[in-house]
Amino acid sequence: MEFSAKQIAEYIQGIIVGDENATVHTFAKIEEGVPGAISFLSNPKYTHYIYDTQSTIVLVNKDFVPEQEVKATLIKVDNAYESLAKLLTLYEMSKPKKTGIDPLAYVSPTAKLGKDVYIAPFACVGDSAEIGDNTSLHPHATVGSHAKVGSNSILYPHATVYHDCRVGNNCTLHAGCVIGADGFGFAPSPEGYEKIPQIGITIIEDNVEIGANTCVDRATMGATIVHKGVKLDNLIQIAHNVEVGSHTVMASQVGIAGSTKVGEWCMFGGQVGLAGHIKIGDKVNFGAQAGVPGNVKSGQTLLGTPAIDAKNFIKSSIHYKNLPEMAAALNAMQKEIEELKKQLNK
C-alpha cells in the first residue's frame, strides 16, 4: 500500500516541509533509507544521516532545524518516535489476518472459541479453555485446561498458558513465553526437598506484552498478577505471588523473587534483581544490574548493588576507581604516623 505525505501528516497531526504528494510504501532506518521509504529522526546522534538519506519522507520533532539542505520531505511532529509507533501499528493492522482452525490443530470439544479466531497447525486448546474473538494461536502454542485468553490477543509459537490461568484482551505472548508454570517452592527435609504444590494461578491483564522465553510463575495460593499495560522483555523471571503494577516496563533478564509487589509506571533496566517479599513504590527507576534487597519508596531512581540513589552511586563510582591509589596513600600515611609515634616516644 502507498501513502502520501499529506495522508500521513493528517493521521499523525504533523506539519509537512516539502512535497505533500511524496509517496512511500515501506519503512527504513534513516541510515539505510531507500526511495519510497519513510524513516524517523529522534536521537540527535543520527542527525547527520538526514542530509544524505535516500528515504522519501522523514519524521522529525517540531524543534528540528536543519543546518543544510534536506532532500527528503519532512513531517514535523511533537514526538517522532511515538508517531512512528502509530504508523507501524497502522501498517500491522493493514496486513491480512488468518482465521479458522487448521486440521492439524487440537481443540478440545469442551473448549469455547470466539469469532474469527486462528488456531495454527499443532496448536492446542485444552478442556473447557476459552479463547476470545480475533485471537490467534501460532504453531505449538498451548492453552491449558480451564485457562482463558481474551480477545485480540496473539500467542506466538510455543507460548504456553498453563491450566486455569488468565490472559486478558489485546495481549501478546512471544515465542516460548510461559504463563503459570509452578513457582519455585520446596521445603527442606532430612531426605532432601519436598515440593510445595503450587495451587494458585497467574493473571495477565489487558494490553500486556510479554517477550520470548519470559516466565510468569503461578502462585502458591491466590494469584501472581501482571496488571494492565505492562511490557516485559525477553528472558525475564517473575516468581510466584509477585504483583506487577500497571504500565511498568522491564528490560531483558530482570528477576523478581516471590511475593514482591511492584508499583505502577516503574522502569527496570536489564538484569535488575529484586529480593522476595519486598514492596516497590510507583514510578521507581532501576538502572541495569541494580540489586534491590529491600523496600523502595515511590519516585526514586536507583543504581548499583545494593541499589542506592543514582546520584550517590555516580559519586561513589568516581571514588571506587581510585580505591587502589587511596589504599596506597592510606598505607603510606599509617607508616608515617607510626614513625612519628616512635620519634615522639624516644
Fold and architecture overview:
The chain has 346 residues and is α/β, with parallel strands linked by helices. It has four helices and 40 strands. It has a twelve-stranded mixed beta sheet, covered by helices on one side. Strands 9-12-15-18-21-26-29-32-35-38 form a ten-stranded parallel beta sheet, with no helix packed on it. A hairpin with a 2-residue loop joins strand 22 and strand 23. The longest helix has 23 residues.
Helix content: 10-25%
CATH topology of the largest domain: UDP N-Acetylglucosamine Acyltransferase, domain 1
- Low-confidence spans: none
Radius of gyration, taken over Cα atoms and rounded to an integer in Å: 27 Å
Number of E strands:
40
In percent terms, what proportion of residues is strand?
A: 25-35%
- The number of helices is 4
CATH architecture of the largest domain: 3 Solenoid
Characterize the biggest β-sheet: 12 strands, mixed
- The pLDDT mean sits at 95
Q: Strand order across the biggest sheet?
A: 8-11-14-17-20-25-28-31-34-37-39-40
CATH level-1 class of the largest domain? Mainly Beta
CATH superfamily of the largest domain, please?
Hexapeptide repeat proteins
Indicate how many domains the architecture comprises: 2
* Global shape: flat
Distance between the termini: 96 Å
Structural class: alpha/beta
